[in-house]
Structure formats: structure tokens, C-alpha cells
Amino acid sequence: MNEPADYPWVEELYQEELFHLSCKTLVVVPEPWEKLTEADKSLLSKILSAVKVGLAGARIIAEPEFTRSMLRQLNPRCVIVFGSQLEPPLPPGEVHRIEEAKLVNAPRLDSLDEAGKKLLWPALKEMYSL
User: Apex CA 9: angle with CA 79 and CA 61, to 5°?
Assistant: First the structure.
């Protein structure tokens, strides 16, 4: 699905805050969806299903570096970052409150081992009040 940023004229046409829709869950990965392996997509689907969001309930973006200004612009409630560089850096496995959003930093999907999952799960339970 195309995003408003794909068409710069959309932002010029709809400048009112009314049209700046936020999402509840934002997932940030460092590479485009098409480059993720089936195993990575399956793992992401399982993680999102476990927090009762599912793939359809999340906005997934590919950004090698994720900044506070991007966070402000996208205005999500919950953010899960899988392997993208955070600016400023944040330790993994904790829920971080940044402005109105809760953010969890995690390793790349392709390097998320059992120890990483055990670190990630309590943070996700806290973020989603499970």
C-alpha cells in the first residue's frame, strides 16, 4: 500500500493535523520487506500475534536509522525496532518512553536467538500490558 510520503503533493494538499493519522504499533526493520526472509517474516508475525496486534495491525517501515524526528512525524503509540540504528542509542530489552510513544529496541530478526527472545518478551508484555 502506498504511503502519503510516496506522493509529496499529498502532504501539500492535506496540511491540517486532521490528516496526520497515527498508528498504534510501528515496527522498524533495517531492510525492505521484500528482502526479509520467510523465516524473519514468520517470526515477526508470531511476535505481533503474541502481543495481539498481528501483521495487519502494525505499520512496518524499513529504516536503517530511526530518529526522534521520525518518531514525532509518524506518531505511533508503540514502537518495536528490530536492528535499526537508534538515534539516540537505547539499550535493548527495555520499554523506553519517548514523548507519547513506548519503544522497545531489539536485535535484527535474523539474529534474534532464544536469549534475545527471553529479553524481548518481558518488555513487550509490559508495553502491551499483557
Answer: 20
* Mode of pairing for the β-strands spanning 101-106 and 78-82: parallel
Residue 58 forms beta bridges with which residues?
25
Asked whether 122 and 95 are in contact (CB, 8 A), the reply is: no
Of 19, 24, 5, 21, the C-alpha closest to 100 is: 24
52: cell is 495481539
Longest dimension (CA), the chain: 48
Q: Collapsing DSSP states into helix, strand and coil, what is residue 47? A: helix
pLDDT tens digits for range 111-128: 999 999 999 999 999 999
Task: Read off the DSSP letter of residue 14.
Answer: -
What is the spatial order of strands in the sheet that 58-62 belongs to? 58-62, 25-29, 78-82, 101-106, 95-98
| Single pTM value for the model | 0.81
Name the phi and psi angles at 115, rounded to 5. -65, -40
